[in-house]
User: Fold this.
Amino acid sequence: MAMFSKLRFHNLICNNLFAPDGSSRINTWLASLAIILTAVAGGIAATNSLPLFQDGAYYFIKLYYFQEPLTPHFRHAAGLFQLPALLGATHGLALPDVRLLFGLGYALVPALALLLSWLVVRRDSPELFIWPALYILFVNTVNFSWVSELLISLQLVLPLYLSVLLYPCSRKFWLAFLFTTPLLFTLHPLVAGEFFTLGMISVGLALLRKIERKQYFQISLAFTTLFLGKLGWSLLYTSRYETSQSVSGYFFKTSPENLFLLLASSGIGLILFMDSNSALQRRLMWAGFAVACAAFWYLTTKSSSGHVVIPGAIAGMIALVVVLLLSLLIAFLTSRYSQMRLSSQQITLFSLPTLAIGSLASQYFEHGIVLKTGATFFFFVMILVLAAIDRMKRARALLPQRLAFAAWLAALYLVVIFVKAVVWNIVGANLIASLPSQNDTCIDLETTRPQWLSEYPGAAINNWSLPSLAIALQDSSPPRYLLKTTEDCKLLSENSELALAPWERIPVWLANCRVETPGTSCRQ
Assistant:
C-alpha cells in the first residue's frame, strides 16, 4: 500500500509539474535531468563554500556579525537570497551551518531560474527550453561570482521573457510581470539594460505578429516605463563605487578562455538554426569545429608565459580525444532514441560546448580566476534575440535533440562546479594552514608574505576580501585573523578593532561574541 501511494505521488508530481500534455516521457525526463543536475551542482557549490569568493565572504561575515542582510548600493532585493542565512544566524546556528545556508541561498538560483523557465515553456513550446539552458548552464560559467546582483538578475529575467514570447495576451504574463519586476528593479543598475532590451524586442514582435500587435505594444510600453524609471533611480542613487568602474574594464576585460567560451555560445546558437542537409552549412559547421579544436589545444597547453610546452601539449591532445569521445557518445545515444542518423549538426553541437568547458576549467590551475565577465550581458541579449526568432520558427521537430543537449549542458555545468570546488578547496586549505596558532591572534601579509598567495590559484583570493574569507572558512572559535597590513594587526591588539575591509572596521568583542555564543544579543 505504501509503495502504491509513493507511485501515485511520483506520477502526480511528474504529470503536473513537469510533463506537458501529450509529450513523450523521454522529453520530460531530459528536462527534469537538466534541472536536477543543476540543483546538485548548486549543492556542491554551497557545501564547498564557493559563494564566499571575493564579495561573498564580506557579505557573509557582515551578515553573521551584525545579523542583518547586506544590501549595498540600494540593491535591496539581494536580501532575499540572504534570508536563509539570516534566519540561521538569528536562531543561534553555528558559523559553519550559517555558511552553508548562505551558500545555498545563492547557489540554487540557477536551478530555480531553470525550473521556472521549464514551467513556462513545458506545455506549449518546450523546444524554447534550450535558450535559458544555454545562458544559465553555459554562458554563465565564465563567472566565478555567485553574489553578483547583475548575474542573478540575468538568470531570473529569463522565465519572464519566455512568458513574453508565449503568453502576451494572458493574465499569466501580467502576474509574472508584477511578481518579477519589483525584484529585478532593486537588484542592479544594469537591470535598466534588461528592461530596455525586452522593450525593444517587444516592439519587434509587435511589428512582426499582427494578431498580437496590441498586446506586444502594451508590453513594450510597460518595459520602457520600467527602463526610464530604473534609469532615473540609478542617476539619483548610483554610488561612487558604481560610477568609478570604467565601461571598457567592466564589459570587455576577461581571459582568453572565457572569451573562447562566449564565442562558442554564439556558434551554438547558430548551429541550432542550421540544416545539416545543406552542404554549405555542413562545411561551415565542420570549419567551426576545426577552429574550436585548435583553440582548445592551444589554450589548454600553453604555459603562463603563453608558450606551448611539450608535456602540456601531450596532455592537451589526450584531453581533446577524451572530450570528443564523450560528446560523440552522447550525440550517438541521442540519435538512437530519436531514430535519427548522427548528423554533423549533432556532432558539432555536443562537441563545441565540451571543448569550451574543458578550456574554461583548465585556466583555474595556472592562469587565474575571473570574478565576473561583464561581456556576458551582450551574449545574454544575443540569446534573447535568437529565442524570439526561434519562437516564430517553432522548430518542434528538433525537440528531443534540444532537450538532450540541455541535459548535456547541465552535466558540463556540474563538471565546471566540481572543478571550481577542487580549486577552491586547495586555496582554502592553504589559507587555513597560513593562519596563526591559537596563541597568536593575528598575522599580517606585509610581514609573512606567503608564497602561495603570489601564485595561481592562490593569487585569486589575494584581494581586499581576504580578511573576511579567512574568518568565514574557520570552524573553530575564537577566530584567528589574517590581515592585510601591520597597521591592521596593531589596531587589533591596541584598539580591539578588526579591519574587515579598507573602508570598514568592527569591534573585536562583537566578532568573538558571535562565534562563541551564536544567537545572543551581543551587546556591550
